[in-house]
Structure formats: C-alpha cells, structure tokens
Amino acid sequence: MKKNLLILALAAVVPALACAKKPKKQVVEEPAPAPVETVVEEEPEITPECLGQISLFNEYCKSKQYADAFQPWLEVYRHCPNANKVIYSKGAQILDWKYKNAATPEEKLEMANLAMEMYDKRIKYFGNDPKYPEAYILGQKGVDFCSYFPDRIVGSEVYNWLKTSVSGIGLNSQLTVLGKFVEVSDAIYKSDPEKYGEQYISDYSQVSNMLQHIWNDPASKNANDAGVMKEYVDNLFAVSGAASCDKLDDLYRNYVATNGMYLEDMLKLMKMYKRVNCTESEVYFSAAVAAHRLQPTEESAAGCAKMCMKKEDWKGACTYWEQAMNLIDENSTEDLVDYQYNMAFCLYNQHRYADARSWARTSMETDGSKAGRCYLLIGLCYASSQPYSASDYAAKAAILNKTVFWAAVDQFNKAKQYADCAEDAAKLIAAYSKYYPTQEEMFDLPVEFGSGTFIVGGWINERTTCRAAK
Q1: Is the predicted pLDDT of residue 27 greater than 70, yes or no?
Q2: DSSP three-state, residue 457
Q3: What is the Cα–Cα distance from 67 to 57, expressed in whole angstroms?
Q4: How far apart are the first and last CA of the chain?
C-alpha cells in the first residue's frame, strides 16, 4: 500500500517538472533621463529707479553734460538694459565723450571696449526693432570700431559688420556707414592687393551705385550729402590703384549711358578720370561729349579736345582747345598752360608752324616752369620748315634750308636746361645736328651769310651761330 502511494506521488511530480519554464533573465530597466530644464534667462526688472535714472541721464545728454550723465547711464545699463532704446542711442554719445576726454590710455581702452559691448547688448534686447534692426546696429558698431581701433581694422570683424549692415539696410543705410564700408574695404585691399582686388572693386561699385541712386532721388533729404560722399568714395577708389583705366571703363560704361543727361554727374566722372590719368579712355570721352552737349564747360571742352587728338583730328582739337581756354577760370593757370601747349601741338601737326610757335611762347609766358616742352616743340617746328624756295634762291635753297637745323638745335639746347626734357632734348640735338650744312656748303653760301652768325629767314627770323656738320 505504501509502495502504491509513493508511485502516485512521483507521477504527480513529473508532469509538474516537465511543464515548468526556465526562469527569464532579469532585465534591469534604466530609469528614463530626467527632462532637461530649459533655463530661461529672466528679463531684467524695469524698476521705478531705472526709469528715474533714464530720465536723469537723458536730460543731462540734452544739455551735453556727458560727465554728469555717465553714472546714471551706467546704472541703468547694468541693471535694466532692456528698459529703453535710449540707453543705447544716448550711451553711444556718452561713451564717445568719455573716450575723447579719458585721462589715460587704459581709460580710453575701457570706454572703447564698453562701447563695443554695448552694441552687442543692444542687439540682444533690441535687435528685432523694425526701425533699427540688427543690421543697422552692426553698421553703427562698425563705424565706432574704426574710430576707436583704427589700427585693428585689417583682420577684424569690422568688414563683416559693415557689409551685413549695407546689404541689410540698403538704400536706407546711413551715409557714414556706406563711406566707412568703402574705407575698410580699401584698407583690406591695400593689405593684400592680389587677394582682395576684386572684392574691393565689387564693394566700391555697390556703394557708389547706392550713393548715386540717393543723390538722384529728389525726394531724399540726403541727396546733397550723398553726392558729396559719392565724390569722396570715387576719389578714394581712383587713387587706390585697384582699377586700371580699362576696369574703370567696365565699371562706368553703363553709368554714362544711363546718366548722360546729368551734367554734374558727367563732370564729376571726368574729374575722377583726370585724377587717375585715364583721360585717353573711351568712357572719359563719352562723358565729355555728353557733358559738352548739355552745357559746354571748360572741362567738357578739354575732354572733347583730347578725344579729337587721340583720333588725330587736329583741326577739331584746336576748336575745342580754344573753347576750353575761353571758358576757363582766369585763375586756373595750371590747366591753362596745358591747354595753350596742346593748342600749339595740334597746330604743329597741321603744319601751321608759325601759329604753333606763337601758342608755345604764350604757354611759356603763362608758366615758365613748363617751358622745356615748348622749346622742344618750337625746335621741331623749325626743323620741319623750309623757308627758302628754289624760285628765290635757285640751287642755293637746298643749302639755305639746312640752316633751320641751327635754329632748331638752339631751341633743343634751351629745352635741355629743364630736367623733365633733358633726355629728349639730347636725342634731338644728336639727330638734327647731322643735317647742318657741311663746311664746303657753308663756303658756298652767299657772302652775306658766311660770317659767324646767321639770321634764318622766312617766318623763323632767328639769329643763330653757323656750325658745320661733323
């Protein structure tokens, strides 16, 4: 009986063991990361004390008492910088005064750094202002940086600040920002012309076009000032060496086509071209013709004359040079002496030698310091002339006409005394002295011409010394 009970007990245990599952591997679940708390920087509290201090420093600024304004301004700036935009507009004035009146270099640096920090804080609290957005603030920051750190312009962020400002504000940019942007680009270009040449041309072109647009806008209250600023950046670019005459033509070809009806624009463009010695360029001539058509002036007449000279239209050039001299200011002797010489040169090329000599002498009388080139020209007039005709002097005319080279070399010797003409004069002396009469030809001259001196006849009528060819 006991045996049967044992068997039954074992039978009951076996199925239970067979159905038992292996225990699962225990998975330890990691706790979920705690949510990151977003730290929201609290806006500084705008207290009644802050408002009172704003009113205080604002009143001081109105009467330009910046020394008294500084401390209340600083309190507001430190404790409630979000209270009002006036903290920054007046703050710029206060810090500029503090900088200029600082007693030590350390104090100057402190004020300059505070000013830069102030612009960053303005962007933080008022960068979304619809009237004075971040781009506007960066423009002001760039202008002040150039004033406070002029020796740190190249290699700093100021170029990017100003570029962002000009691109963002566009035609509403302050003129000082536009001008400063070109100045900074100019400085960067000069630090590495090969690397930054194209950048500078692009920056200048952008600003010049913007200033032109403002200048031509009759509704703009800044039109006149824009014209002045445009002339400044044009001159800055012109003397930079960044652009050749061909590049200037590429920049201004369409400008002349678009603005050719504006006399003042054309005259200013011509002055810029003249300043960089590009008065032989296509665009310069186009501007001169456009200006002269609108209203003949000394400048436009001179431009048209140069165009004619380039085309070897000597007669047309003389007409324009005469107009230029009639229109010139009586005190402008520097230009007048050149016009007179150019008139002589054009007459020489028309073989009007007597008239050419007359204008060359007039030019010398106007400015004796430039007489060397006039002596050279008179000498060439003599050397090109044949005052003796075969009908009057028969076979002797050929020998007599060689005497003009004595008179010519006399003029070249005078020119040789001027440093700017000495080299050319020496070459001409060597070239034309070969054409003197020979010793035998001199003996063959009429008796009255055989002495040591000789008066070259015809229109020349110059006393000279007899010399034989060597």
Answers
A1: no
A2: coil
A3: 10
A4: 167
Check: CB of residue 149 under 8 Å from CB of residue 159.
Answer: no
User: Contact, 91 vs 126, CB < 8 A?
Assistant: no
Q: What tokens were used for 208?
A: 């010049």
Q: How many Cα atoms are found within 13 Å in the side-chain-facing hemisphere of 47? A: 11
> Cβ(93)–Cβ(66) under 8 Å?
yes
Mean pLDDT lowest for which of 12-16, 21-25, 151-155, 281-285?
12-16
Residues 6 or more apart whose Cβ sits within 8 Å of residue 61: 69, 90, 93, 94
Give the number of residues written for the chain.
Answer: 470
Confidence of residue 18 (pLDDT cuts 50, 70, 90): very low
Cβ neighbours of 95 (radius 10 Å): 26
Cβ burial, residue 151 (10 Å; 0-12/13-18/19+) = exposed
- Residue labelled with tokens 């600082």: 102
* DSSP of 384-442: T-----HHHHTTHHHHHGGGHHHHHHHHHHHHTTSTTTHHHHHHHHHHHGGGSPPHHHH
Q: Report d(CA 280, CA 321) in Å as an integer.
A: 16
Stronger pLDDT, 346 or 331, i.e. the higher one: 346
DSSP, collapsed to helix, strand or coil, labels residue 367 as coil
Rounded to whole angstroms, how far apart are CA atoms 303 and 305?
5
- Stretch 275-297: mean pLDDT: 90
* pLDDT, average across residues 363-380: 96
Beta-bridge partner residues of 462: 456
Place of tokens 């207290």: 47
Rounded Cα distance between 334 and 356, Å, is 20
Q: How many CA atoms lie within 13 A of 109 on its CB side?
A: 4
d(CA 318, CA 306): 10
